[in-house]
Amino acid sequence: MPQDWIDLAAWRAFCRAPYVQGQTKVRSNLDTPLVGRFPGLRIGTWGLDTLSLSYGRDVEQLLRFDPAELVPGEDAVALGRGRYVEQYQAWLRAGHVAPPVRVVQTEAGTLRVVDGNRRWLAHQREQKPLRAWVSWSVPSGLVDSSGRPIVTGLTWEISVQDALQAGERVQPRVRAAYEQVLQKKPELRRRAEALR
């Protein structure tokens, strides 16, 4: 993992820890606010997932937003979750800091909330900025069956691939790690070939 990056799996474990013991849920995050600070978590921080998918390990960036800059992924009130929004509002007024929401950049460039819609709405109602882990979209270099470009989330491997493609200097150990991953990921290999 690159230095000064947050391990997203460790971050998720930190967020779950107060609510589970082993595999058993002992309390709800909707009834008990998350307290404590995760080391190194600050605006601008990059996070790297340990799970490797088709294009590699997801990369997300922690940023601060006015809630109006984000599009909700669901209507929490219409889905009967209004009381939880009110609970988050009460915690915000009491000085608690909510965990960041998760956001994806759509093909159109919109930033859509995919996790944390109740926290988003609470921040919007309280007119307070919120933190969000953002998954930026990038071209995959491939097209779907109708000929439209396929867009995917930024991964560590894609960022290295793009740096190499641009002729930027990449540390030898990073390049070697990337070459190993490339052998195991056909989607990543096809992207490299398509971008040549």
Short description:
The protein has helices at residues 8-16, 82-93, 117-126, 156-165, 172-184, 186-195, and strands at 6-7, 20-21, 24-25, 46-53, 56-65, 101-105, 111-115, 130-135, 137-143, 149-153.
Helix fraction bin:
25-40%
Poorly predicted spans: none
Shape: globular
Task: Calculate the mean pLDDT score and round it.
Answer: 87
Query: In which order are the strands of the major sheet placed?
Result: 1-4-5-8-6-7
Largest pleated sheet: 6 strands, mixed
**Count of helical regions:** 6
- Return the domain count: 2
- Ends distance: 27 Å
Helix/strand-derived category reads alpha+beta
Percent in strands = 25-35%
The arrangement of helices and strands along the chain is EHEEEEHEEHEEEHHH
- If you compute it from the alpha carbons, what radius of gyration comes out, rounded to the nearest whole angstrom? 19 Å
Descriptive report:
By secondary structure, this protein is an alpha+beta fold. It folds into two domains: 1-18 and 39-56 and 156-196, no CATH class; 66-135, Conserved hypothetical protein from pyrococcus furiosus pfu- 392566-001, ParB domain (Alpha-Beta Complex). 33% of the residues lie in helices and 27% in strands. It is built from six helices and ten strands; from the N terminus they run E-H-E-E-E-E-H-E-E-H-E-E-E-H-H-H. A six-stranded mixed beta sheet has the order 1-4-5-8-6-7. A hairpin with a 2-residue loop joins strand 2 and strand 3 (24-25). Helix 2 packs across helix 3. The longest helix is centred in the C-terminal third of the chain and has 13 residues, at 172-184. The protein starts with 5 loop residues before the first strand and ends with a helix.
